[in-house]
Design brief:
By secondary structure, the protein is mainly α. It has a single domain, classed as Ribonuclease III domain (Ribonuclease iii, N-terminal Endonuclease Domain, Chain A, Orthogonal Bundle). Helices cover 66% and strands 0% of the residues. 34% of the residues are buried.
Length: 140
Amino acid sequence: MTKNPICEYNGATLAYIGDAVIELLIREALVASGICDAGRLSAQAQKLVCAKVQSDIAERLQESFTAEEEAAYRLGRNHHASNRPKSATAAEYSRATGLEAVFGYLHITGERERLLVLFETAYQPLLNTRAAHDDFISLL
């Protein structure tokens, strides 16, 4: 994909793509960690992609965003979704959507190296401790 101005995309579109990107990267990392049981893979992935975890990650990463990433984050965060999971507050869901928008933006613009740096910064500590803890939320 080519580099496009941020104004060509809305927050929902960026978050839609980012959600898929994050999910795939997490699934790949979990499989690479040696988990073979599909049920366990699914359960672990669901814990890592929940709005609460993504919200906490967004808060930690936000200060390292570039100006373009910050713009994508705001587009996603400010998108008013008609539904949100019961397990997250409106603020948590907004921050999580912002994080997904950043990952969507980086994917769409072909900035794979930056995308992987942010992913590793955000998720690698959680993935490294996966074997010892099944409650990722308590690790944030």
